Amino acid sequence: MNIGILGAGRIARKMADTINQMENAVLYAVGSRSAEKAEKFAQEFGILKSYGSYEELAKDSNIDLIYIATPHSRHYEDCMLCLENGRNVLCEKAFTANAKQAKEVLHYAEEHGVFISEAIWTRFLPMRFVLDKIIESDVIGEITSLTANLGYELSHKERLQKPELAGGALLDLGVYTINFALMAFGGEIADIKSSCTKNDYGVDKTNSIIMTFADGKTAVLHSNAAAATDRTGNIYGSKGRIEFQNINNCEGIRVIMNDGTVTEYKTPIQISGYEYEIEASLQAIREGRTETDFMPHKETLKVMKIMDDLRKEWGVIYPFE
Questions:
Q1: At CA 45, angle to CA 42 and CA 46, rounded to 5?
Q2: Is 145 helix (H, G, I), strand (E, B) or coil?
Q3: Which of 11, 178, 206, 274 has the fewest CB atoms within 10 Å distance of its CB?
Q4: Treating both helix axes as pointing N-terminal to C-terminal, what angle do 99-112 and 75-84 enclose, rounded to 10 degrees?
């Protein structure tokens, strides 16, 4: 199946390299706002078609799936451009800048029978399902809480610093901690408490979130765009804990029992990890579906609503809102 990439930045390069190593996908086209940049990208990755505008890419009916690799401040307009031209979409996280945009995009896709999914790779990676099985086995007993953190020193990234670019740690990093909690615990959230520190532009530089679920479990989450953290998730039970090494791209899982027994689960060899979201999207398209079970539309919307509520509490409002 033919795949097009919208955008030609760092994450687009990683996806292009990944697709070129996949057996059931062809990297067919790339679109950039610069014809020169698109052509250079196409030459580097052996891509047949290059377009000097996103509109030209979206109009190419030979494309089975477009991967949107632009900053999330542009996701709404880029998704709608593709959907309105009948193109199936895999859109990088955060899905949009807010829940209102997400709802409009998802509604349009569902109404017109076009596939779309949020490309939050942690929902598609095999170790996510290994974690599910460990939790379901009750090996660590009654589970009561979890902690998760994700942080990188990103003060040099302009798109994370400015409100007009939907900046802040939450949409770029906190989205992973929230998804980790929802994947591990699911269910209804009864209460959320949080706080953040802001940069000079008024968006969150660091944030801390405590979620209390309806069944009594709690999740303590931290994301940080000003410092590197250990990126670990820990799930605590009466008999032991599960250590999920790197919630952004799992490097291994350890089950550590109260008696000191340790069981390790190794991450399978992968191209980059991005291949799983491509494979799931292509499978859903073959089946004529508008979403994938790995990241259902309702989960994308749920996360966006949570982040909206957090930003409202912090007073982090983007100018275009």
A1: 75
A2: strand
A3: 11
A4: 10
Structure tokens that stand for 299 in this block: 């989960």
Query: What spatial distance separates the first Cα and last Cα of the chain, rounded to whole Å?
Result: 37
Angle subtended by helix axes 10-19 and 35-45, to nearest 10: 30
pLDDT per position as a tens digit, 83-116: 999 999 999 999 999 999 999 999 999 999 999 9
Strands of the sheet with 65-68, listed across from one edge: 49-51, 26-31, 2-6, 65-68, 89-92, 116-119
Helix, strand, or coil (residue 128): helix
Single-letter code of the amino acid located at 178: I
pLDDT < 70: residue spans in the chain? none
Print burial letters for 82-108: b (CB count within 10 Å at least 16), e (below 16): bbebebbbbbbbbbbbbbebbbebbee
Residue 119: half-sphere exposure toward Cβ, Cα within 13 Å: 28
| Residue matched to tokens 């000191």 | 260
pLDDT of residue 34: 95
Instruction: Give the C-alpha separation, 14 to 23, whole Å.
Output: 17
